[in-house]
């Protein structure tokens, strides 16, 4: 799980162009949206594409995104449970 | 006739014009056969959460607009009008390459949203919270000229304060394609721009923004008295006839023009008419050139307008841009004669206030 979280950190930084953020600064349990990383709705779309592109996961119901993208850890847990790679 | 008073300017170019005190202390040569803009640390001008999604054209546009607005001492404007030939090229390329590389799947929204030509104008409006008229002209070599014409028409309709600007960026892919098409000068030529006998130009990029006002204020540094565009003039005589008629509208002749900034591009295919026009200009006025500072691009005329404003403000025609040995005693009128690819010609008349 820790390895997957570290991998996700790098992918998120690259996909969302968070050039100012270092991987060690991202707390896996902090919220991704709002207070934590401060992501917004466009980033949510980027994360949906990231899951599909890198892990073969298609989120059919956008409402699920709220739970999946709560934090880096919830994202990693969802990938572990549903991912193809 | 309505005038457009220039109350604030901002410029990013191949010269260090982001330093607002710059006036020919250093003149940067082209890196190879094209010019890269000298860009600032954008963190000083744009919030990090906005910055991470912006391509270079947007960063250059938003930054120079914010400098112009600060210099004009305004917090909002009645209209935002931008001009660009290529738009946000970097994001357009990114989006299209992703489309190709991922077999038309996994398309992400950011580069698509940011790729449209009007992104610069809309980002400025969002940052300023300006809900007024917002328009972007994509008219190739007339893109910036169209902004200025629109602004002057809006002044006739009662608008007071308008932000206009021209923006262009190039990318490594674009530069490579240009080079393969042999559109560049193949080597640094020692021949002056106005005497070129060879094909090819030196491409440039940059952004220049202006806060214009319908009325003169204490911030006014110069004013645009008139603008005219000329599409594919057939002969040099055509240009001269149109120029004479243009100046006559303002009760002027060429002899009243202190400095004439001419848009020589270094490509003889497109400069021929300006080369033929030069002796007439030289007889009556002090000719100067500017694309050896900015490089050639669709909205290089925005850089020329910025430069004209500087010449009037400083009352100085530096040797670095002067074509002849003549020096004006004072700079009251600057005429810009620009051309792009020998197709789009324009006159802009700028005056001291």
Please write out the topology.
The complex is a heterodimer of chains A (85) and B (353).
Chain A lengths: L1 H14 L25 H15 L9 H4 L3 H11 L3
Chain B lengths: L3 E9 L35 H4 L4 H17 L6 E5 L5 H13 L7 H7 L3 H10 L4 E5 L5 H14 L4 E8 L3 H9 L25 E8 L8 E10 L4 H13 L10 E4 L5 H17 L1 E4 L1 H4 L5 H15 L18 E8 L3 E8 L2
Parallel strand pairs in B: 2-3, 2-4, 7-8, 7-9
Antiparallel strand pairs in B: 1-5, 1-6, 4-5, 6-10, 9-10
Helix pairs in contact in B: 2-5, 3-4, 8-9
Main attributes?
heterodimer, A: 85 residues, mainly alpha, globular, B: 353 residues, alpha/beta, Peroxisomal Thiolase, Chain A, domain 1, 10-stranded mixed β-sheet, 11 helices, 10 strands, 20% strand
Helix run count of chain B: 11
Could you describe the largest sheet of chain A, including whether it forms a barrel? none
Mean pLDDT of chain A: 90
Radius of gyration of chain A from the CA trace?
A: 12 Å
Would you list the SSEs of chain A in sequence order as H and E? HHHH
């Amino acid at each position: 799980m820790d390895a997957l979280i570290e991998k996700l950190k790098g992918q998120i930084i690259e996909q969302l162009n968070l050039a100012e953020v270092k991987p060690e600064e991202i707390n896996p349990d902090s919220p991704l949206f709002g207070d934590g990383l401060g992501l917004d709705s466009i980033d949510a779309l980027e994360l949906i594409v990231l899951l599909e592109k890198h892990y073969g996961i298609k989120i059919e119901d956008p409402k699920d995104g709220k739970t999946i993208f709560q934090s880096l850890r919830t994202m990693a847990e969802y990938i572990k449970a549903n991912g193809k790679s | 006739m309505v005038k457009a008073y220039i109350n604030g300017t901002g410029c990013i170019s191949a010269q260090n014009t982001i330093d607002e005190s710059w006036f020919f202390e250093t003149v940067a040569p082209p890196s190879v056969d094209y010019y890269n803009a000298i860009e600032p640390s954008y963190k000083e001008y744009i919030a990090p959460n906005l910055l991470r999604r912006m391509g270079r054209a947007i960063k250059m546009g938003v930054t120079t607009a914010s400098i112009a607005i600060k210099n004009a001492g305004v917090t909002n404007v009645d209209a935002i009008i931008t001009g660009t030939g290529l738009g946000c090229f970097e994001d357009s390329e990114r989006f299209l390459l992703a489309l190709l590389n991922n077999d038309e799947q996994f398309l992400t929204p950011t580069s698509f949203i940011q790729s449209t030509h009007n992104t610069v104008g809309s980002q400025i409006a969002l940052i300023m919270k300006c809900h007024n008229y917002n328009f972007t002209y994509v008219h190739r070599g007339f893109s910036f000229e169209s902004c200025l014409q629109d602004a002057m028409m809006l002044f006739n309709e009662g608008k007071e304060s308008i932000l206009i600007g021209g923006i262009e960026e190039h990318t490594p892919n674009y530069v490579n394609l240009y080079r393969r098409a042999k559109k560049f000068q193949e080597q640094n030529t020692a021949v002056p721009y106005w005497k070129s006998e060879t094909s090819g130009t030196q491409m440039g990029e940059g952004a220049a923004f202006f806060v214009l006002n319908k009325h003169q204020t204490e911030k006014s540094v110069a004013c645009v008295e008139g603008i005219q565009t000329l599409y594919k003039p057939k002969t040099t005589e055509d240009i001269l006839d149109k120029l004479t008629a243009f100046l006559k509208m303002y009760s002027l002749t060429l002899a009243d023009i202190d400095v004439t900034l001419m848009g020589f591009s270094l490509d003889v295919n497109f400069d021929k008419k300006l080369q033929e026009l030069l002796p007439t200009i030289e007889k009556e006025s002090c000719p100067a050139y500017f694309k050896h500072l900015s490089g050639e691009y669709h909205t290089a005329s925005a850089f020329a307008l910025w430069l004209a404003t500087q010449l009037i403000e400083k009352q100085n025609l530096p040797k670095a841009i002067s074509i002849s040995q003549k020096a004006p005693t004072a700079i009251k009128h600057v005429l810009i004669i620009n051309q792009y690819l020998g197709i789009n010609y324009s006159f802009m008349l700028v005056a001291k206030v």
